[in-house]
Design goal:
The chain has 6 helices and 2 strands; from the N terminus they run ααααβαβα. The protein is mostly helical. The protein has 2 domains: 90 residues, no CATH class; 60 residues, Cysteine Rich Protein (Ribbon), CATH 2.10.110. Strands 1-2 form a two-stranded antiparallel ribbon. α1 packs parallel to α3 and α2 runs antiparallel to α3. It starts with a helix and ends with a helix. About 3% of the residues have low confidence.
Length: 185
């Protein structure tokens, strides 16, 4: 009966996820543990050869692929329990830190004479008007097309690299969270 089979597979899946979660939460080096796990299970799951085309066998293969191969990759990419890692990523999903606006031919560009690292460092009109640079000495030119707005690029500015639109709401908290996530790798 396909309905009973589906329920059975879901129960097994939940039990295996719980066991894996406990093991991975307790491990000292998540990356090495996931690599070891994948080295063991990728050949078992993907190199079984001539599988039976029955629904039950296909569902077992799909379950094995999800539990034994994809779930460990979720742990590795998110640096821990997947639900917590996704929630952390969603919290930091505010405005982009870089503008990246591509200038069209004839579009105005603004360069701060006081803060630009060099004369090629420019802002689009929206970023310029939302920045401290609009109160400084500046140079306005028209673009030849194809350049990018340098708002948010700390290397392009001596001070004030981001306008109000591209400054994260809580830069210190977000930077610390990213540092903690990356430290796990």
């Amino acid at each position: 009966d396909p309905k009973n089979l589906q329920q059975e597979l879901q129960a097994v899946q939940a039990e295996l996820k719980e066991l894996r979660s406990l093991r991975w939460l307790a491990c000292a080096d998540l990356q090495q543990e996931v690599y070891r796990h994948l080295a063991e299970y990728v050949p078992r799951v993907l190199c079984q050869g001539g599988g039976v085309a029955e629904q039950r066998e296909e569902q077992r293969e799909e379950l094995a692929l999800q539990l034994l191969l994809l779930a460990p990759l979720e742990w590795l990419l998110l640096g821990g329990e997947p639900a917590a890692g996704l929630a952390l990523l969603q919290q930091g999903g505010g405005a982009a830190a870089l503008c990246g606006h591509v200038f069209k031919v004839g579009e105005p560009t603004y360069s701060c004479r006081e803060c630009a690292a060099d004369p090629t460092c420019v802002l689009c009109m929206q970023c310029f008007l939302a920045s401290a640079h609009c109160h400084h000495r500046y140079r306005m030119t028209t673009s030849g097309g194809g350049g990018f707005c340098d708002c948010g690029d700390a290397e392009a500015w001596k001070t004030g690299p981001s306008c109000q639109n591209h400054t994260p709401a809580n830069r210190n908290r977000e930077t610390e969270e990213v540092r903690l996530l990356l430290a796990r790798f």
